[in-house]
Specification:
The chain is α+β, with helices and mostly antiparallel strands. It has a single domain, classed as Nuclear Transport Factor 2, Chain: A (Roll), CATH 3.10.450. The chain is about 15% helix and about 50% strand. The protein has 2 helices and 4 strands; from the N terminus they run ααββββ. The protein has a 4-stranded antiparallel β-sheet. A hairpin with a 2-residue loop joins β3 and β4. This is YchJ-like middle NTF2-like domain-containing protein. Pfam families: YchJ_M-like (PF17775). InterPro entries: NTF2-like_dom_sf, YchJ-like_M. It comes from Nocardioides malaquae.
């Protein structure tokens, strides 16, 4: 989760694509370079431990646009482990 947030923050679409589950990922991933991601707070975790194949992360990510408007993204993301690596599957946004 944190690596995906960092990839959004620095505009690393390749990492976002690579860490998105092949079953649900779009054809391409291009973060908006005009959006500045300014903070991440993890609110909760369900599963996702060493012996788990799935997990969920609830988080709030803060952003700012070029006009100075600020906002927040509140999401509950689902992840799945494949070949020992975690992949983003999908999420519910509030």
């Amino acid at each position: 989760m944190r690596s995906r947030y960092s990839a959004f923050a620095v505009g690393d679409g390749d990492w976002l694509f690579t860490t998105w589950h092949p079953r649900t990922r779009p054809d391409e991933v291009r973060p908006d370079p005009a959006t500045s991601w300014t903070g991440l707070e993890i609110l909760g975790l369900d599963d996702g431990g060493v012996d788990d194949e799935t997990g969920e992360v609830e988080f709030v990510a803060l952003w700012r646009d070029p006009d100075g408007q600020e906002g927040r993204l509140h999401e509950r993301s689902r992840f799945a482990r494949r070949a020992g690596r975690w992949f983003y599957v999908d999420g519910d946004v509030d």
